[in-house]
Amino acid sequence: MVTDPDAQTGAGVNVGDNLDIARRAYPWLHCFPVDGEPSCEGHAPSGPEVLFGPDPIEHVELVDYGQYR
Fold first, then answer.
1. Position 39 in a domain
2. Number of domain units in the chain
3. Burial of 57 per CB tally in 10 Å (0-12, 13-18, 19+)
4. Which of 16, 47, 54, 59 is 20 to 30 A from 37, comparing alpha carbons?
5. Is residue 9 part of a domain?
6. Series of mean pLDDT values for 10-residue runs along the chain (69 residues)
């Protein structure tokens, strides 16, 4: 999980940005509430699952579920 305010994804999404920016950068994201807060997630073409949340973005998570198989 990344929470550093200076962190930025390869597509230019920063901690502190709103979820609309993440959705434009990653059109394959699916957005829905988690624990009452908006968030977006999806599988990156390179494999790991990416999670952004809430709005504005406080953290970015990358999860590679392949390591658990």
1. yes
2. 1
3. buried
4. 47
5. no
6. 86 94 95 93 84 94 69
Q: For residue 24, what are the domain limits?
A: 19-68
Q: Which helix (H) or strand (E) holds 30?
A: strand 30-34
pTM (predicted TM-score): 0.82
Per-residue pLDDT, 2: 85
What is the structure's pLDDT at 47? 76
- What backbone torsions phi and psi does residue 68 show, to the nearest 5 degrees? -100, 0
Burial annotation 26-55 (CB, 10 A radius, 16+ → b, else e) = beebebeeeeeebbbbbeeeeeeebbbbbb
Residue 48 domain-assigned (yes or no):
yes
Cβ pair 57, 7 in contact under 8 A: no
Asked if the peptide bond before residue 56 counts as cis, ω within 30 degrees of 0, the response is yes
Contact 7, 21 (CB under 8 A): no
